[in-house]
Amino acid sequence: MSGFYSMNSVLKNNRNLLRQKKPYLDSFKKYLKNRNGTLENKKYSKEELVLLKKKYQKERKREQVKTITITILILIPILIFVFFIVNNLYEYNNTKLYKEYSIEQEKENSIVQKKIKNKLKKYNYHITEGDKWIKKKHWENAIFLYKIAVEISPEKFEANYRLALAYSYNCTYKKLDCDKGKKLNNKLQKYFPENTQLQKLKIIFDK
Question: In terms of CATH architecture, what is 112-206?
Fold first, then answer.
């Protein structure tokens, strides 16, 4: 019984091998039939069959190369088209981002400009109001307003000078804020040593 089963398995394996070779044999038979009309009309020797097989294999390779070439030729324009679409999308996104960035920058610049205008408006207001109190000889009120102007724009010479001037009036007529005025005037003279207005104030504070 064991011999029977082993023989049976061998036969099954042979059948499987024949099934695997069948597609190639079928295609080879078709090749011979197309070449000579009918396969049965002519008998081939072993050498002829070997040559025909080689020729068939070459033709198969040629067909494969042709198929690959055609596929590549079809794929190239498709790839170019895809690249074009992707590139356009990339450019579109970049343009969109740039526009959004520009809009944001414009908004930020607008906010900054508004802040600068408001700051300048407040500064001018306190300088103007301080000047009014100087004319009325209300030195303390003028000092109060000039101090705010200096806080708004500490880099402005005119605000610092007006504050020193108000101190000088208060020092001359009320004997107040003399030290503050002298300290501020000395600070300003370090930056503007040739300024004649500061030199006059120095004389007042040094008395």
Answer: Alpha Horseshoe (1.25)
